Amino acid sequence: MLDDLNIAEQVRMLRCANNREAYRALQSPQEASDLDDAAYTHIDAFIEMMRDSNSYVRTRGLTLIACNAKWDETGRIDGIIDEYLDHVTDDKPITARQCIKYLPKLAQAKPHLVPRIASSLRHADTSSYADSMRPLVQNDIRDVLLALDSE
C-alpha cells in the first residue's frame, strides 16, 4: 500500500517524459484505487492530465479518473463527464480505446451516468480513424455497450 507521500510522487511521475517510467508510475495509484481513496485526493491532477496535449498523459488521466470513480462522493467526475466522454473519439485511437475500456468501471461506480455513457458510445463518430484502427474502436464500443446493457 502506498502512503500519501509515495502516491504524490507517483502522480508527479505520471507526466514523466520517459513513457516507460510514467507507465510504471501509473500502476501503483491504479492498484491503490481498488483499496482506498488515497489516490482520489489527486483527482484534480488526473482531470488536468485528461486535458493534456500528450496522448499518453491523457490516457493515464482517463484511466485514473475511472479507477477512482467509486470514491467520488462529491460528484467531481459527474461535473466533467461530458469532457471525459469526448475522449471516446480522442484524436489518438489508442487513447480512445483506453477511455472506452475503462467506461464499465466508471459506470459500475456511477450507475446514474450509464445513460450518458451509452449515448456517447452510440453516437461516437469513428470515421476519422484509419481503416486499421476503426474496426478496433468500433468493437470496443460494441463490447462496452453489451456490458452496460447486461448490468
List the helices and strands and how they pair.
Elements: H1 4-13, H2 19-35, H3 43-50, H4 55-67, H5 76-86, H6 93-109, H7 114-122, H8 134-150
Helix pairs in contact: 1-2, 2-4, 3-4, 4-6, 6-8, 7-8
Description of the structure:
With 151 residues, the protein is an all-alpha fold. The protein has one domain (4-150): Leucine-rich Repeat Variant, CATH 1.25.10.10. It is 68% helix and 0% strand. It is built from 8 helices and no strands. The protein has helices at residues 4-13, 19-35, 43-50, 55-67, 76-86, 93-109, 114-122, 134-150. The radius of gyration is 15 Å and the shape is globular.
Structural class assignment: mainly alpha
As residue ranges, the low-confidence spans are: none
Taking the sheet with the most strands, its summary is: none
CATH architecture: Alpha Horseshoe
Q: How many domains make up the 3D coordinates?
A: 1
* Cα-based radius of gyration, to the nearest Å: 15 Å
| Approximate helicity band | 55-70%
> Any idea what the CATH superfamily is called?
Leucine-rich Repeat Variant
CATH topology group: Leucine-rich Repeat Variant
What labels describe this entry?
8 helices, Leucine-rich Repeat Variant, mainly alpha, 68% helix, 151 residues
Put the structure in a nutshell.
The protein is 68% helix and 0% strand. With 151 residues, the protein is an all-alpha fold.
